[in-house]
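Homework-ish question, so no full write-ups if that breaks the rules, but can someone show me the predicted structure for this set?
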Amino acid sequence: MIRFKCDYSEGAHPKVLETLLQTNTEQTVGYGMDQYCIKAAGIIKEKIQRQDAEVHFLVGGTQTNLTVTSAALRPHQGVIAAYSGHISTHETGAIEATGHKVIELPSSDGKLTAWQVEETVKAHYSDENHEHTVQPKMVYISNPTEIGTIYSKKELTKLSSVCKENGLILYLDGARLGYGLCAEDNDLDLPTIAQLCDAFYIGGTKIGALFGEALVVCNAELKKDLRYIIKQKGGMLAKGRLLGLQFISLMENDLYFQMASHANKMAMLIKEAFIKKGYSFLISSTTNQQFPILPNDVLDRMKVNFEYSYWQKVDENKSAVRFCTSWATSTEAVKKLIEEIEKW
Amino acid sequence: MIRFKCDYSEGAHPKVLETLLQTNTEQTVGYGMDQYCIKAAGIIKEKIQRQDAEVHFLVGGTQTNLTVTSAALRPHQGVIAAYSGHISTHETGAIEATGHKVIELPSSDGKLTAWQVEETVKAHYSDENHEHTVQPKMVYISNPTEIGTIYSKKELTKLSSVCKENGLILYLDGARLGYGLCAEDNDLDLPTIAQLCDAFYIGGTKIGALFGEALVVCNAELKKDLRYIIKQKGGMLAKGRLLGLQFISLMENDLYFQMASHANKMAMLIKEAFIKKGYSFLISSTTNQQFPILPNDVLDRMKVNFEYSYWQKVDENKSAVRFCTSWATSTEAVKKLIEEIEKW
Amino acid sequence: MIRFKCDYSEGAHPKVLETLLQTNTEQTVGYGMDQYCIKAAGIIKEKIQRQDAEVHFLVGGTQTNLTVTSAALRPHQGVIAAYSGHISTHETGAIEATGHKVIELPSSDGKLTAWQVEETVKAHYSDENHEHTVQPKMVYISNPTEIGTIYSKKELTKLSSVCKENGLILYLDGARLGYGLCAEDNDLDLPTIAQLCDAFYIGGTKIGALFGEALVVCNAELKKDLRYIIKQKGGMLAKGRLLGLQFISLMENDLYFQMASHANKMAMLIKEAFIKKGYSFLISSTTNQQFPILPNDVLDRMKVNFEYSYWQKVDENKSAVRFCTSWATSTEAVKKLIEEIEKW
Amino acid sequence: MIRFKCDYSEGAHPKVLETLLQTNTEQTVGYGMDQYCIKAAGIIKEKIQRQDAEVHFLVGGTQTNLTVTSAALRPHQGVIAAYSGHISTHETGAIEATGHKVIELPSSDGKLTAWQVEETVKAHYSDENHEHTVQPKMVYISNPTEIGTIYSKKELTKLSSVCKENGLILYLDGARLGYGLCAEDNDLDLPTIAQLCDAFYIGGTKIGALFGEALVVCNAELKKDLRYIIKQKGGMLAKGRLLGLQFISLMENDLYFQMASHANKMAMLIKEAFIKKGYSFLISSTTNQQFPILPNDVLDRMKVNFEYSYWQKVDENKSAVRFCTSWATSTEAVKKLIEEIEKW
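A: Not a homework solution, just the prediction itself:
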């Protein structure tokens, strides 16, 4: 059985593990105040070209999203997100559990537009009784999105402008940020993101770490007392150095981006194979997630040797499924998959 | 200026005030444990034909909705509601502030269908990772809805069946219940509602009381410790008798329904006048809220002497507005409005 | 049976009811935006000599306390209160339900001292891992306290200074404020309180209103978006004018203070009678609540004709109980009670 | 510098790391549904002799505590804990942030007694207005406690009985459980704990794992939908196998208990050295945390080469400090510390 089900099927890239092994018996202070976390934060601040940013390391994405939201919003404020956004659909109401509404907007490509955000804010304030509705205060986007699409520099710039004009916080969920930044049609980079967003995170879990997300806070107001809230939400790792160490490994020699590029390359090979056979896609993705629409009988046959994620029913005979690659996806595995595709 | 803006522009029906005056110097225990609350609860239990029900009196609707939801749900559970539902749009995220997601479903007539609810539950459990999404556990409906429509007995029966089959709690927001039960095309009554719903409230604020909603809990599981939660949410009135007394007045001689019938009658006169002049409506309503679609210039002229609620833009030249009647709407006021309509 | 059980046994002072009656059929806008609320707010701002203050009217005390706290604090912050404070013990965890810890300090007289607050803040910041503990951000006091004692001007000034020096919000629960300000040994007044506190409320429910508390917000930072949070917590009364109207009545001709003075006078008569007979008190109170320590057999006999609140066991043979007076306490009732006391 | 500051200064026991390395490239499903988690749960269920128990693996202690509490309590319920309990003082109000009050009781030895719990419950229900106070529903204890003391079998049995009689959930925080079970004066074991407690966790972070706590749920009612709540609170690790794998390593050949015994042995050597020199202790501990009371000048000298935790001021000249050992504490390090002690 060859798995293309998700990008967190294996452990960590060997270099990451190596670093943990080498430092295992060293004694450090806890809770992310150690030298490794400080060093990792320094590397990231350099890469994003913002020495004024604050970097915190958390274990997982849901935890990071709920911590930032809880820290950023007052009780009557909500966060705008695409209906397909991770916080809208796949975090068991984690945001609502901190007391805040996710204001869900429709989106066919997983992205929010500046126009949508602007209209939502306008609609709120034009309501005579706007105090009876949740005040939009934050915008949540993911890049790449949950369906593999990416924001262009132009799109993100517009979104950022609208947010600034309307006093909204722009937060980017970068669970798969590497895959996005290494996509062939990408024109964003870390410094630009750090310029345009109030906060974002660089995802480690899905790109080569055992676990770990580097939360970058650029907006000064959001920095205040963030460590208190990380602790309160259960997100402060006792042996915090494990996070710092992993991010040092990921960032050194751009291992993070090398892994992402590899995964994207593998994904493009798969994409091509599907295209060649005339299959269409739920959405056109240039990152490590591909969503071909396949006949159900083809899916049944494929199931025998390959694991993929079921995504959604398209019609009686066809379904969209997800194939996911990662740093650990081998050319052999992809070759076998392509052979299988070509067989049909 | 004659106001048709809402159904809570005036104080209370004179009979309600009279009762408060008569009993003003009596000494009673506080917090709704007095003889008047007990008596009012008794009258209601008789009217709904369920001696096993529990009746609590709260001051307002948002308070009632958030208290019931908070009491009924575990942290990972959410409440299904129409996108236009009061809890979805007009309570400043009160439900989310208690930690729960409102799972919003589209609806063109303000109502939820049994089918929609069933599909939502199915979709949840068919997700391989359903633990990553909010568990649907409660269904919130309002009758009449926020746009004046009502549920038929058949519709509510189906909805109730689907809820029972799927272990969902069915909760009916009856802020305007009287108007619904007195509509010409209504076939529901209090005993049927008490049979089909796990909990519901009989709204006083919008039908002749100074304030007050009678929360009826039929499902035994929901009764447990409810008074604790009412207190915690700030909904336990010190001089609770004020609520009991008002509901005694409302229920005696069916004053509640007399007032609702009057308001509906006034609304039907207004409706007719608009129809006669060829205007269409956002939705066909047989209750005290009417939503005609009117040319903007007509609205401008009308504004001079009449107050209504702006509802939504329909196109460049037309908007939907709301005209609302109540127990206090006089035939004279309606006559003047009709004259105005006929003028255009 | 003559009741001295609490100060909310009756309805409202006749003048309050009269105002409601006179205005009953007037049409006003809802949610506290009407002329009466504006007028009442104006009167209060004049009385406290702060035109910059914001006044909101809420139905009850628990609701007011939880709304202010929720609006004022970020998630990791807590509110310091006496262990005997209302929010600590008698609001079913309403503050915690909004996500915040009540940091409870011991107090034998129901009051907090400036020193206690200062030590608590110091202890927090001197902890190397202070981010692992709740950050003190607000101080809750009640005046009079839950056991009838009052703050002197000197005490409140000191407390206020410590709060300002440490960036803490000082919030005063004035559920019985009138009784405090009319106590014979009181040296505080409304302008001083408005100068020293960031927010406080003038309690109506326990001093002559049907219900209602006037929340005064002096600190500019606390004003922001407060109406949203009042709505979210279920505290925005649809017919908000009922609150405005009542406070106009209470404030006109200082009815509020006349009622409080009367209640205090009645309480002093009762106090004297107990003293004459040689009974001691749980605490010395100069306000409308008196806490004599009485032999259990005396209490048993008294129970036949008089209602009081059981407070706490003192030893095997004696208990502290509470006698409460109000605007509605008649000289006759007090006379009868004194005769009973003198009998033993 | 030799560190005795805490029991999480190093990484993990080499055997733990070895397992991670060996399995690194294997593909497994995520979120704790993999074979390793299932195997680890099986081993634990065997060790506790309860096949009906449910085992969940979480990353950290605060997360585990807040998840269990949130899952177990209804909104109006609170958890009883010692004032010195971890949830009372060192989790930044994590419990309150889920909406629940920690009902803090005094304790000089860090433990709760059955009597205290019983009195608290009695006091609640004997209050005429008990609905105005938080309902005690859960009891939180830690074993060993935050100051190193342990519960005897008799104490825990009594506590468990009182909880059962009063419908309370007994939850044991076992962040350092191994150290407790390996203490020379301990008479508890895992099966007994699993019999007496409704839920508890076996702490990995502080005893040899990189991170990880094994939450054991014995009470059937608490099991329901727990995974939803783990996900919601951000506690569901994507590569969940990392937790399963570590606990397999810890449990195989009782490595967990070997490590704990070693740490305790080291702690006893340190304890003895302090006793020999005539120093007293804050509390008598037989586990890996020792709290000697030392003259401030001695502490100053010691600081040069040894790291310890400052605990509390005892008087002007003396302070209590904490020395902590772990699996990684070497005999050499302890020898050096003892030499230092003997020097004074």
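Now go work out the reasoning yourself. Hint: Chain B has a mean pLDDT of 97.
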